[in-house]
Amino acid sequence: MSQLRLSVLVCLMAGLVLPVGKVYGDQKTGTLDIYFIDVEGGAANLLVTPEGESILIDSGYPDNQGRDLNRILNVARDTAGLKGIDHAVVSHWHLDHYGNHAALAASFPIGQFWDRGIPDTLAEDPGYQDRIAAYRSASQNQSRPLKAGQYLKLRSGATPLKARVLSASREVITGEGPENPFADRHQPQPDDPSDNAASLSLLFTFGQFRYLTCGDLTWNVEARMVTPRNPAGKIDLFMVTHHGLPVSNNPALVLALDPVTAVMCNGPKKGGAESTLKTLREVTSLKNWFQLHRNVDLDPSLQAPRNLIANDGTTADCEGQWILARVAPDGRTYTIQIGRDGEAHPYETRSEH
């Protein structure tokens, strides 16, 4: 066996994932930057590490005159100063989450594609075969599947940076973390056969800072991930799951995570559900939550304060403002702001997790 093949085997057996060689970011600010890009109730989450390495999780809806694709390119190329994406991740196989991976690869270099594994069929999407063919072509059939417990290995400097998979393809980490005192808040729901329940969940740690994103993971799998033990522990920043829809955001998960801040990637008429906002209000440590959109069908008094909502109107007049969480080089403090010129709201990273 060659030395290279042996190294690959050792890393896989250890639950690690090999890094991509090239880094497409020139600017190294020392900060960890987390962009929440407005794709109108889909998802597109761009992280740029202190080493200039980039991770794009999901890519919004296709079509719409290139609306979501252009918003991603604007943030990645014009705001973050990237020349390409090092890691492009698909959390699960729904149109609003991988709709632009193929189109993005045609106009912006992508180093490595990651996903939960590619199913042969997807019953809930009659257009899946055409879409997955485009994805396979863009990734040159070289996408790599992620499993619960693995690490997406990233370059790390003086402040340690890690990204661990907590759920994938309905499998979750078990037997790790503290006992969940909110386990009894789980009220089982009918099993979800859709691909939402198979979503990847990724926990990023940067020094003391902890950020969790769970794609569209749904109620029962959320509970399995954090009961009876919670492998994520308490976190600093939470991307509210599944756009804030009520089939997700199980109180047994959200209250156990006890986030200090949260960002909801909702649309004007998708997500931001009243029940989810009620759960957020129960979180003991929560200082603020931000929304990409105001829910136009819900009373404003139930939502985040207006200055913490990036986009106020309907899709027709939406400016596509993004939200940025920027973590200091030592991982001890961070800010969250709306758009390039928005107020930077400061937070301290929690010392106990």
Describe the structure.
By secondary structure, this protein is of the alpha/beta class. It has a single domain (24-348), classed as 4-Layer Sandwich (Metallo-beta-lactamase, Chain A). Helix content is 20%, strand content 24%. The strands form three sheets. The protein has a nine-stranded mixed sheet with strand order 7-6-5-4-3-2-17-18-19, covered by helices on one side. An eight-stranded mixed sheet has the order 10-9-11-12-13-14-15-16. Helix 4 packs parallel to helix 5. The model is unreliable at 1-20 (pLDDT under 50).
Question: What would you say about this model in short?
Answer:
By secondary structure, this protein is of the alpha/beta class.
* Beta-strand content: 15-25%
Mean pLDDT: 93
* CATH top level class name: Alpha Beta
Terminal Cα separation, in Å? 42 Å
Q: Low-confidence segments, ≥5 residues, pLDDT <50?
A: 1-20
Give the name of the CATH superfamily. Ribonuclease Z/Hydroxyacylglutathione hydrolase-like
**What spatial form do the alpha-carbon principal axes imply?**
globular
Number of helices: 8
Strands side by side in the biggest sheet: 7-6-5-4-3-2-17-18-19
Q: What share of the residues lie within helices?
A: 10-25%
Output the structural class.
alpha/beta
Main pleated-sheet profile: 9 strands, mixed
How would you summarize the topology of this molecule?
Elements: H1 3-13, E1 16-17, E2 32-36, E3 45-48, E4 54-57, H2 67-79, E5 85-89, H3 95-98, H4 101-107, E6 110-115, H5 128-138, E7 144-145, E8 151-152, E9 161-168, E10 171-172, E11 201-206, E12 209-213, H6 219-226, E13 237-240, H7 251-257, E14 261-264, H8 274-282, E15 288-293, E16 309-311, E17 323-327, E18 333-338, E19 345-348
Helix pairs in contact: 4-5
